[in-house]
Specification:
Length: 140
């Protein structure tokens, strides 16, 4: 059973990360588009569907299955696991920021620049690198 849960954990992780890497990239282009333009309205639909259809459910499944794995075999013990959970908490905070940005764009109230979203786009990639090294190499 453990291996099956782990397989679905990784599938959820891939879906969550795909969205976390793509959504800020969409926002780079959205921040460049004229408010009220056809492009801007199209980006609103793309952002909402990506968030509600993929990113939110994938994050929930990742957390539920990840916590089960952490509890069932590791009893929540291990430095690598604690560090991994810390990085995933930061990733979840970025997720929360993206939710707020989607709402701001939907209300035509975005104040952030394309450069801001370019920088924000790099953060999930760096966190993913750390998380995957921690869970596979388990360096401590
Ligand atoms: C939400 C909190 C999370 C918890 C508590 C958690 C916990 C775990 C645990 C305990 C394992 C099993 C490790 C093993 O069997 O050696 C695992 C596997 C894995 N996790 Fe997570 N995880 C979480 C989120 C994530 C995220 C966000 C990512 C990637 C960005 C990720 C990537 C992976 C990968 C790639 C594996 C497979 C590793 C292997 O087979 O050796 N996890 N996770």
């Amino acid at each position: 059973m453990y291996e099956w849960i782990k397989a679905f954990h990784v599938v959820a992780v891939i879906s969550w990360m795909a969205g976390m890497l793509y959504l800020p990239r969409l926002m780079v282009y959205h921040a460049e588009a004229q408010t009220g333009s056809i492009q801007s309205e199209t980006f609103k639909v793309m952002e909402r569907r990506l968030l509600k259809g993929i990113i939110n459910p994938a994050m929930i499944v990742t957390w539920v299955l990840g916590l089960y794995l952490a509890w069932s075999v590791f009893g929540f013990k291990g430095g690598w696991l604690h560090a991994k959970i810390l990085l995933v908490l930061i990733l979840s905070a970025i997720h929360g920021m993206l939710v707020r940005h989607v709402k701001a764009f939907a209300a035509d109230k975005n104040q952030k620049t394309p450069r801001y979203f370019r920088i924000l786009n790099e953060v999930p990639a760096v966190l993913m690198l750390g998380i995957v090294i921690l869970v596979i190499v388990k360096p401590f």
